[in-house]
Design goal:
There is one protein chain. The chain is built from no helices and eleven strands. It is an all-beta fold. The strands form two sheets. Strands 2, 4, 5, 6, 9, 10 and 11 form a seven-stranded mixed sheet that branches. A four-stranded antiparallel sheet has the order 1-3-8-7, with no helix packed on it. It is globular and about 40 Å long. The N and C termini lie far apart (about 40 Å). The relative contact order is 0.31.
Length: about 130
Amino acid sequence: QAQLVESGGGLVQPGGSLRLSCAASGLTLSSHSIGWFRQAPGKEREGVACIGRWSNWIEYVDSVKGRFTLSRDNAKNTFYLQMNNLKHDDTAVYYCAADASDSFCRGHVSTKYAIDFWGKGTLVTVSS
């Protein structure tokens, strides 16, 4: 059974850094579009970053550009979200996702399309 498992969340002070990991089993990430989403308390889920399966171009939501970096390690079947200069507004549960299509990663990170695989989420809290 395919699954994604996030790790790396936690409590960090404003300006600090965290690296989230998403390890896949039962599916090959190199043949999927991959992405990170987040949901803050009382807010809708938001797309953060993604890579389409047929593209090396990475899409980021404007609020994280220059601070967050999505990367992948196909040998480890894992992808990452490096988050630097974290702000209070980055506090959320972060989810990794993967899909055989690139529907959710065409020009921006969309939440409008069904995605095949989701992790259970990891909490990131930015607080002093």
